[in-house]
Design goal:
By secondary structure, the protein is of the alpha+beta class. The protein has 5 domains: about 80 residues, Alpha-Beta Plaits (2-Layer Sandwich); about 140 residues; about 90 residues, Calcium-transporting ATPase, cytoplasmic transduction domain A (Distorted Sandwich), CATH 2.70.150; about 140 residues, Rossmann fold (3-Layer(aba) Sandwich); about 100 residues, Calcium-transporting ATPase, cytoplasmic domain N, CATH 3.40.1110. The protein is about 50% helix and about 15% strand. It has 24 helices and 27 strands. The strands form 5 sheets. It has a 7-stranded mixed beta sheet with strand order 15-27-26-25-16-23-24, sandwiched between helices. A hairpin with a 4-residue loop joins strand 3 and strand 4. It is elongated, with a radius of gyration of 32 Å.
Length: about 725
């Protein structure tokens, strides 16, 4: 059951604070649905004292409010939303899903009723229309058909129109007008005119128009509903990877399994080998190694000990850990990655801002035009009935649903499609900027290379000797060694030493595989390595290298084929960068670059008029990523680089870079096409309705068709998947 809150409720307990202590509040605003709602809510909340920023995510119906230090007045925000006619509750993913599912069921039911009304109303309307073709009905029969049409059509229209009527009523109660107001007025006036014509035995009734209008509008709204579901499922997919429960250590070391949502900072948790870290925390006891591949894509385990931090989603590989929670599950690193996706609909591109401005002036303008049509038509000699019909047609035909959907539908579709291809889009503006780039800069390590060590050429006999022990370990380097050795026997009496390595027995001889000091060898720095040896015998060294991504050369060629210049900026030494550039087919490269060098190079290219896409993963790339016109980072990148990037891609290859560029250009074309379609439609439809060439029935079909056209056009965004 949904929890309700009073108007102006204090939600201070739901505030979140970042590492700098700045407070923010996430609210679920279930009744927002269009560009007009978005602009109205953001404008009102941003204007409140103490509010630093407000971003409304239409896909999630989630309002994020950032407060100035010491000015966290949550009751003021909730009261402001209530005055606009929008109820708000603390954002809860489960509650949001429930509200989304409930809205979907209501839309389907309303659509079904409207479809029933359309089919059955037409059964009585067709005989009336027959008079247009010389098959006139008798007066009594005609009136009877009109009554039947009203008896079936009016109740269906009233029920199917409830989503619009409720929204319009809330808006009017707040002394404002959203886009559902003209729709509701148009439908109700159409029904009123039709009943008047029926009672007065007039010629035309429009019960079929009212029901048809609502049916087509509901189709468009349901398609929008489904698009939002597809976009929001990305964050849910990531959060589903988080541990569902945590083992809480109580007094007397009593262990209790609790839902991860109940864990609070300061709680002591037990994490066994093979379990994922449930929340961000600090190790209070134990030694182990963590696999952070879910968070960063980095498969090399990280040794951890008492006092070190670990993040939710990491896999505990070897030792038992006691963990002191430092954050709630919703504030964890994994939840932060999920929020990267949600940022996609929060920042608005130039095209969305243009649509917002157009939508903001729509309601007063269209009502003024409708009133002018009625008054002007009456003054010029039209009967009040005919003048009113023209005014209703203007209200219906000029509904800006197509304009409001023009860009969001494209961005939602493009972002969802890219997510399925392994790219997280952090902002709609990112796609717009990416479509404009003409120059691409790659970092080397972790971008052109895999960022994952592989066994360097080693004597097969040495690999075969160590492979039995390697096969018994879950360590990624050991797995790489085992893969090189192929299938074979396992070592016996295997014991994992947390943070050091693994030991066991092969053919009756005790052996070890792990770090150099674990085998009593002085460490050689500078390379990723494992050591193996039997007790009292010579130690064998296995070196692992970071190989080039398999499709690096194909991706570079594909980008050049699309008219883009490509270069490499790396902090590595000349030899390594030269080899990588040669393998990738890049002739323009620079080595030994500092973060300042990379940022300066991007600034120089921008001064020359170039729009640069930076692809980097390291901390030394963060400044360059922030300076670039568009930026991408692999999933293995540091958090600072992912935060600075506009898009984050996963996978073993660089193909997502090309795919993101192709989808961005395609999305740009679709957005401009939608703007053109919506503008052309309104330029033709409004004058036609004012001059009486369009009656309410035709207006209903025309308006709904325009919304369906831009939505279906948005679904074309993406094109074919690129393969090397």
């Amino acid at each position: 059951m949904a929890v309700t809150y009073e108007s102006g409720a204090d939600f201070t307990a739901f505030l979140r604070r970042d590492e700098r202590g700045r407070a923010s509040l996430d609210l679920l605003v279930p009744d927002v649905r269009c560009a007009g709602c978005l602009a109205k809510v953001e404008r009102a909340v941003t204007g409140l004292s103490g509010v630093a920023a407000a971003r409304l995510n239409l896909s999630q119906k989630r309002l994020t409010v950032e407060f100035a230090p010491g000015a966290e007045n949550t009751a003021q925000v909730v009261a402001a939303l209530d005055s606009l006619g929008y109820a708000a509750t603390p954002y809860d993913p489960a509650g949001a899903r429930e509200a989304h599912d409930r809205e979907g069921r209501q839309l389907i039911m309303a659509m079904a009723v409207a479809a029933f009304g359309v089919m059955n109303t037409m059964m009585f309307s067709v005989p009336i229309w027959a008079g247009l073709f010389g098959q006139e009905l008798g007066p009594a029969t005609r009136t009877l058909m009109m009554w039947f049409s009203g008896v079936v059509g009016a109740p269906c229209a009233l029920y199917a129109g409830m989503p619009f009527f409720r929204s319009a009523w809330r808006s009017l109660k707040a002394r404002r007008a959203n886009m559902d107001v003209p729709i509701s007025i148009g439908v109700l006036l159409t029904l009123a005119i039709s009943f008047s014509e029926t009672v007065l035995r007039g010629r035309d009734v429009y019960f079929d128009a009212a029901v048809s209008l609502l049916f087509l509008l509901l189709i468009g709204r349901w398609l929008e509903h489904r698009l939002r579901a597809r976009a929001s499922s990305a964050a849910a997919d990531l959060l589903a990877m988080q541990a569902a429960t945590a083992t809480l250590v109580g007094s007397g070391d009593a262990l209790t399994a609790v839902p991860v949502g109940q864990v609070r900072p300061g709680d002591m948790l037990l994490v066994r080998p093979g379990e994922r870290i449930p929340v961000d925390g600090e190790i209070a006891d134990g030694l182990s190694e963590l696999d952070n591949s879910l968070l960063t894509g980095e498969t090399v385990p990280v040794a951890v000990a008492v006092g070190q931090a670990c993040r939710a989603g990491a896999l505990n590989l070897s030792g038992v850990l006691r963990l002191r929670a430092t954050a709630r599950s919703e504030d964890s690193a994994l939840a932060a990655i999920a929020r990267l996706i949600e940022l996609g609909a929060q920042s608005k591109s130039r095209y969305v801002r243009l649509a917002d401005k157009a939508a903001a002036v729509y309601v007063p303008v269209v009502h003024a035009v409708a009133l002018l049509t009625f008054v002007g038509g009456w003054a010029l000699g039209l009967e009040p009935r005919e003048a009113l019909i023209r005014a209703v047609a203007v209200l219906i035909v000029t509904c800006p649903c197509a304009l409001g959907l023009a860009v969001p539908a494209v961005q939602i579709t493009a972002s969802a499609r890219l997510f399925r291809r392994g790219v997280l889009v952090k902002s709609g503006a990112a796609l717009e900027r990416l479509s404009e780039v003409d120059h691409v800069i790659f970092d080397k390590t972790g971008v052109l290379t895999e960022g994952r060590p592989r066994l360097k050429d080693t004597a097969p006999a040495a690999v075969a000797m160590a492979a039995p022990l390697a096969r018994a370990s879950r360590h990624p380097l050991a797995r790489a060694l085992a893969a090189a050795g192929g299938e074979g026997p396992l070592a016996e009496s295997v014991k994992e030493v947390p943070g050091q390595g693994v030991e066991g027995v092969i053919d009756g001889r005790r052996c070890r595989l792990g770090k150099a000091d674990f085998l009593g060898v002085e460490t050689r720095g500078g390379e990723t390595e494992l050591w193996f040896g039997f007790e009292g015998e010579t130690r064998l060294r296995f070196v692992f290298v970071d190989a080039m991504r398999s499709d690096a050369a194909d991706v570079v060629a594909a980008l050049r084929g699309r008219g883009l210049a490509v270069e490499i900026l790396s902090g590595d030494v000349d030899g390594a960068v030269c080899r990588a550039a040669a393998a990738a087919g890049v002739t323009d490269w620079r080595s030994g670059c500092t973060p300042q060098d990379k940022a300066a190079r991007i600034d120089a290219l921008a001064a020359e008029g170039h729009k640069v896409l930076m692809v980097g993963d390291g901390l030394n790339d963060a400044a360059a990523l922030a300076r670039a016109h568009a930026a991408m980072a692999p999933g293995t990148a540091l958090e600072a680089s992912q935060n600075a990037a506009d898009l984050v891609f996963s996978g073993e290859g660089l193909a997502p870079v090309v795919e993101a560029f192709d989808v961005a250009r395609n999305a740009h074309r679709r957005a401009m096409e939608n703007f053109g379609l919506a503008t052309l439609y309104n330029l033709l439809a409004a004058p036609a309705a004012m001059l009486g060439f369009v009656n309410p029935f035709v207006a209903a079909i025309a308006m709904s068709s325009s919304s369906l056209v831009v939505t279906l056009n948005a679904l074309r965004t993406g094109g074919r998947r690129w393969t090397s």
